[in-house]
Every structure is written in structure tokens, then in C-alpha cells.
Write a structure and sequence with these properties.
The protein is α/β, with parallel strands linked by helices. It has 5 domains: 6-134, Rossmann fold, CATH 3.40.50.2300; 143-250, PAS domain (Beta-Lactamase, 2-Layer Sandwich); 310-415, PAS domain (Beta-Lactamase), CATH 3.30.450.20; 429-587, 3-Layer(aba) Sandwich (Rossmann fold); 595-737, Orthogonal Bundle (Helicase, Ruva Protein, domain 3). The strands form 6 sheets. A 5-stranded parallel beta sheet has the order 2-1-3-4-5, with helices on both faces. Strand 1, helix 1 (13-25) and strand 2 (33-34) form a beta-alpha-beta unit. The chain is flat and about 120 Å long.
Amino acid sequence: MNRARIVVVEDESIIAAHLQEVLTQLGYEVPATASSADEAVEVVGQVSPDLVLMDIVLSGETDGIDAANRIRSRFNVPVLYLTAHAEEQFLERAKASEPLSYILKPYRKEGLRTAIEVALYRSRMERRLQESETRYRELVELLPENIFETDAEGYITYVNRNGLRTFRCALEQPAAGFRLTDVVVPEDRPRVADCIGQVLSGEKLAGLEFTAQRQDGTTFPVIAYAGPITRSNGVVVGTRTVAVDITERKRAEDLLKAAHDQLEVRVEQRTEELAQSNRLLLEEIAERKRAQDDAHASHQLFQAIFESARDSIFVKDRSLRYTLVNSDMAHLLGRPVTELVGLTDEEIFGQEAAEHLEKVDSRVLTGESVEEEYSRLVHGETLTFHDVRVPLRNSAGNTVGLCGISRNITERKRARQRLKMVDEDWRSPAMSKTLSDALSVARTDSLVLLLGESGSGKDYIARWIHDRSRRSNGPFFVLNCAAVAPELAESELFGHEAGAFTGARGRVRGFLELAEGGTLLLNEVGDLPLALQVKLLTFLDTRSFCRVGGRELIKADARLMAATNRDLAREVAERRFRKDLFFRLSVFTLRVPSLRQRPDDIPILVERLVSQIAGELRLASLPEIDTETIGRLCSYSWPGNVRELRNVLERGLILSKDGELNPDVLLLGDPAEGDRFWTVSFPPKEPLPETIKEIRRNFVVEALRRSGGNKDKAARILNISRYTLRRQMKVLDLLACK
């Protein structure tokens, strides 16, 4: 952040040096000091500071007040007086120089900082107000309409350039002593004065017609629209009137009336032989009238739908500025419609949301229609919208802008959002390492390949990554490639057009389009048909695709993740999976540990799953789980992983009674079943101590499983003492599974 630059003007060198030191300690930059009024003006012109700290009494012929006046007039730099003199003669002269504030000597450090910060803030606000006023005046000067502003007494305070030219007024700005009724012919002045009185009482005026007169005496018809000018407290302080010269319209109406009268004369003069022609003419007039009525009714219907819709409807031009918004959007954003027109997404929603919306809008301007779910900040709250954007074309077929409809689905999305597992302090090193790697890749948009046994939680890890990515505001979809018929897999992934195949009655968007701005998980990607693997590879390279039966190239901004329990390297070797797709998917590979590799996490999983299942079964209270039950669950090998654990718990909750989970109904496998085998690779993937620790963990867990949690039996199986077993369980963090 840039430090504020302050010039110190003080004729006493000791005070000047002290001020410079204090200001530097307070975090300000003091590029220069001055000891006299002339030197102060010269220094300000050279360094262009943000603020001048000015002593009123200076040595020399001129004092600080004169120097402040010169600085304000020449450089428009704000001045803050620092003085020990508070006499009336100084204060009256100082007020005329429009300082930001006064600091009396002796000063306190914090008081000095407060006064400077207030002065800098006021200076910034004044500049912003000046810039806003300048932009408003520039816009008004460019408008083709005639615009007048008056005070509460009806005196004109401002007339734009076109108004001066149209009314041929030789007025100075403001037009002191000149009333708005002075530009109205005498016979219309009472009526116009009454209307001005209504506006000053707070009403708006639309469609007032009167005859205006110029200073040279010429007159012309005008239609006016007026509204009150109010302060922030609601007090009306004047009026703003837009007057439009309707001379041409009146001339056209007169010509139309003359033509109509001429037509009536001709009809009356016609004889019977023209009766048929008259009937045809009347039919044509009736047809035109019906067309006009239909057009008017269509316009009224559009206006009714546009303004009464409960969704936000808007139109943008090719520069992506809003040209039309409905009242629902204005209400949602808490800003008037007139304020929103002309703004960009960055000015409304901020830079982050604007970058995404600009990408989507750019695609729409190329001819695409985009439908997506996206979240953005509105009044500090993250809201989720279902957006539909389509291109607007002129009669020549050229895209001139876009139209969009945004529906706020925040509450609906929250209601249907499934229960997410909170971040647990996982006890197992395997799961902690997996989540650490997952967090690293979550910060990117890279492809992720999730490998692991069936039921180990690959879809949970995928969702975990999505929720911590910059796409977390977007949707998350899962396509199970193994559950989709091969002939329908392409349509499910890429969508299809109407008539693409038998039964395809309309256009259907595929998962890639539905996941726009979010994430798509291709579960069981190893079951994807070979023909579809080629098209998926093409999409990964170009980020574009065609729907089934379509020719239009569609861009999709969706992050892809893939998961499988197959050995893809073996699938590639046996030609059941494309080698190039395998390498393309495995940019970042995560191996999700099986449940038997993470027995320390079983108590956490049990607590969470029991709570979730109890809610689904609508149990009155959560059942209690004793240590014996936890021990049996920890000692089981779980060939079906987390999915099997959930099924076992659900069956146990259904069969249990008296509010307690009975271990006898868990129906786990026989603890004394066959031998167990573990595979250790060489060279080891982990450091040697970690590898040895994992082997010891497996032996201890298996012994506890076979002994039903009895530590004496487990120690005899391992041929060690009970004390040694206890110490090993403590070292291996297995005491929770006792």
C-alpha cells in the first residue's frame, strides 16, 4: 500500500525536524519541508504531495494562509493548518482558504495522526465527489435532450448545452434570476407552474405537453418529464426536467390528420363502383389495426413478464455492459435500475466473479447458449444462481448482445446438498498423507486420477478436492461409467441433439455441460468404452466437443477427475484402455488407502456414519457404541472398505434394540479365518522406518482381530508379552481400537 506524501511548512527548523520524524514514525512519507510561503508553493509544485501540513505564522512578508490559497488554486492540494494561534483574525482568514482541519500546538502524536487521516479521507471523498459530478455533467452535456435543473423556488440553476441551443438562451451557468416558466408561453404558465409545484412536493411528472418560447419570441411544442431532486434525508431541494422538442412529431400528426381528412373526402366523393375498393381498404386498415394491437399486446406482455418475473432478467451489449435490467434484479442487488444500467459485472460483483462471467459471456457472443450454476458475492453473502444466457441477434443475424436469466437457487441448493464429512483429525498416517496430497492438487485445475479398492472412498476424496478448489462455488457431478449402458455413455457425457437417435425428442445437455464452472468425476473410468475414450481424449486436448447428432462445437469449462479400482497399467497392456488416455489422465495420481490400512480412523468413521444413518432411519436418538463394539470393528479386515463398514453399521442399527448397538448383530467375518498376506514393494515408497512401522501395525491389528480384542490372546499369537503388546499399541496409536 502506498504511503501518503506530506509536505511540512514550518519556519522553526527544530519543530519542522520533529514533525518530519513523527510523521515518518506514523508511516507517512515526508519528501520535503519548507520554511516560507514562497518556498512552500515551489516545493508543492515539485513533489506533488497528498497533503500539506501548514504553519499559519511564517517568517517573511506572507503567512501560511496566503500560501495555502496559492497552493489550493494552483495545484488543488489539500492543506491542514498547524498553529498555536487561534485569534479570530486568523480563523476568519483561514476559513476562506478552505482548509481540511486545524491542529493546535502543542500537538499529541495520536491527535496528529487522527487529524491527518481524517483530512486525507475528506480529501479523497471531495475528489471522488468532484469526479462523480464531472462525469454526470459530461454525460448530461452529451445527451440530445434539453435538461433543466431548478432550486426549490423554481429558479433555473443549470441548463445543458442542447437546452441552451434549443431554447436559444443566452444564459450564464447558473441562470440566476431566470425561472423555468419563463421558457413557457404565458397561456401555459399557470398549468406548468402547478405541475412544478407537484414535483416539488415529491411527485414525478411524465408526458406534460406545453408550448415553449425562445428569447427571440419563436415558439415550439414540447413534452416534458420531471422529477424531484432530493437530499439524502429525503428533503426536496429542486427539480430536474427533461424537455423534448416534438415539432416534428406534431408536424407528422398534422400531416397524418390532413391525409386522413383527405381520405375521408375522397371516400365521400366515390361512387358505387368504388365500393369494392373501399371494402378492401377498410379490411387493410382493420388488418393493420389488428397488427398494431397485437404488437402493443405483445409489448405489454413482454413488459409484464419482464417486470413481474421472480427471476433476474438482464440484457448486455457487446461490450458486456448492462443495457436493461428488471426490477427483481435491482431489488436483489439493492440498487435502482437506472444505476445498474451501464455498469459491468466487475463494478457489480467484483473482479473474481467478473473474470468467470466474462469467459461465459464471450462464448455467448460467439453464438453459444450457456446454462450453468455459479456462486457470487451479493451484499457480502455468497449466493448460488442458475444462469441461462443466450445471444441476441439483429434482423441480419449478427450477434449484438446477450440476454440472461438468473434464478437464485441458494436455499434450494442448500436443502438438497448432501451431508458432507467435516475435516477430521485423521489418526492414520495413510489418510493424513492422502489428504495432504489432495490439498496440494486442490489449488490447481490439474487432472486427478484416483486409484483404490472399491468402497475405499474415492468419490469422497474427489468431493473433498472440489470443496477446497477455486471451483467450490460451481456444481459437482459424478458419472459412473460402469453403470451406464455403452450405447448411452456418449450421450450421458456429451449430451445429444433432437433426433440424434430413436427416442431423442429434444436437446439434452451432457454431464460436461452440466458441470460448467465446476467439477465432473468420471467414476470407474476403466469401464469407459474404447470408442468413447477417443472422444474424451479429444476433449481433454481441445476443451471442446460436439453433442451426439450435432455439429456445433461447444466449449466447456469443467474440471475433470477420474477414479477406478482397476489396474489401468494392466488394462493398457491388455489393450482394454488407451495408452494415450491413461497418460493424459494420470497428471496427478492419488492412491486412496483401504480401510484395513487405516484402522485408527475407524472410530471416527463409525461416529460419523452412525450419526448419518440414524438421521436417514429417523431414529429418536443416537445409539450408544461401547468399547467392545469398537474393538471388534477395528479388528475386522474390511474387504469391502468404507462401503462395507457403512452397510454393517446400518444393518446393526436396524437390528439393535434398547438404544445400544449390539455387537452380536454386526455379522462380521470369522476372526479365525485364513492367513493374511501383506505386500511390501522394493524399493519402498516410504522411508524404511515408516515401512517397518506399517508392517508392525498390520501384525498387531490382525492379532487383535483374531483374538476378538483380547490383548492376552493377541500377545500369545504374536509370541510377545502383554506389556510389549501394550507398548506397541501406544507407539502405533492403536489404543483407540482396544
